[in-house]
Protein 1
Amino acid sequence: LAPVLDNRFDIVETGFGKKNEALLNQVSLIRGEGLRHVPQLVMIMIEGKNGQDQLFTMIHNNAHSNISSLFDEESNRDYANDDLTLVRGVLGSYPEAYLSLTENEIPNLVKTLQNLNTEEDYIALLDKFAVRRSSPEFWSFSDRVHRWYQKDQPIEFGLLDYNRFENR
């Protein structure tokens, strides 16, 4: 199937070092109750050592013990089996947080994600890497994200909706 599989969301050929690509791939192995405070969609802009930006989407997958009912979701949540998926590019239209870092900070980001246990841990992650909605840099960063998105994914490109964007 290799000739027909679409690998455009794989974390390969990013321009980052192989070690950093391997670290980013480890994000998709993170699971557990510590992810409870991570929003559904987080977009991560990483500036490579070569000066080129790469955009990633981190998806928080909510685990459930049963999905037979539309109501009372909380009683069916299985937080211990929540996990993350990290893909290259944009997936989804409603980012809830933006993170911005350099390639040199990838090990720190991955380690921080692996060690999330509390909301305070998540807020510390935001304090280090987030471009918050209240930041004076927010709209210029949003423009940077949209430029990358339009250039890299012109067919899917569209304006991202900030209606669900958190402000922690």
Protein 2
Amino acid sequence: ELYIIITSDLGLCGSYNSNIINLARTRVKENDKLILIGNKGISQANKLIKNKENILKSFAEVGNKFSYELASLIAGESFDLYKQSIISKINIIYTKFVNNVVQEAEIKTLFPLEIKTDHKSVHTEIEFEPSAEEVLKNAIPLYLSSLIYA
């Protein structure tokens, strides 16, 4: 599995970083791959994983400069790893805003998508131009980029 871990570059933000690192400690296994965003996550990486080769990328001092282009780069590299069967899942660990005092650490699986089937739905065939495969090949990286950027 791949975990994209988003932390801050600086401290003094309450339990923001520690909640993320603690959640990552409970979920990340030794063979999992990591992409780290933020100085605090990078500095704590040795507590998460022993094999430094499993840290694929680190982005420090991103702060207010985090851009859609950077999210697209991360999404593209993540999806390439998935297509090569190096990883089986793309996960993101981040904090979800609850209120000014509380931010909860959360893990979300970005890919593969969990599709809930509704047995009452009507099945109709949809035509894609140029093809369904081509549309998916282009749509999945856009989907991943948007979720990482958000």
Protein 3
Amino acid sequence: MIQRKTKEEIAIMREGGAKLGTILQKLLGYSDPGISLLAIEKYANDLIDKSGAKASFKTVKGYHWATCLCVNEVVVHGIPTSYILRDGDVLTIDIGLLFGGFHTDMAWTKIVGEAKGDDKKLKERFLQVGQEALWDAIKQANIGKRVGNISHVVQSTIEGAGFSIVKTLVGHGVGRSLHEDPQVPNYRRGPIEDTYPFMGGETIAIEPIYAQGGGSIVYENNDGWTLATKDHSLAASFEHSIAITEDGPMV
């Protein structure tokens, strides 16, 4: 069931989202060569504690970390480990915040330190396409539009650039639960007119998840969480939590 939010509830989520955005920016700035994933996780917990909120991901049964940290071929649900970041690594930080009874969810991908030559150009283009897909999709989060409009834009942008959608992973509603209805796929599952129509008050996490190579994924590291590309190609994701309002999409 889709939970539409009141203006007051959206205001709480916006405040939580602002806190989360600040935390994510600090984590991205901290994630340099020589820093371990465990150090990023510790910093995230410290920042969340200081914000007066709680770590959303720790509310997921069996998951004990504030972040998902995905390096290179890891797509989602990367558990923080002792891995030390190196120049040229592609790192995704995915993090959620529980504030005032509501969750917000964000992710961003960066190149760690300095990549060189053609490798740098390829990685920069790869990440730029994902950012474009996210921002173009957000423009579709309006009353009168449908989930399928978002799906179409993401798929067209990613595949049009020669990359692959990871179709087994999707965006989602977000609110009192971290994952709510509706699902927000990054590809069209059928006619757009058959998908959910936005009426206002919906809060969703739009999350292009894609790969340089094929879109197939497999479990890695025998931890029951880490999902990586089957062909070991680079993966990335960009995510914002959005409210559909009378004034347009609210990030």
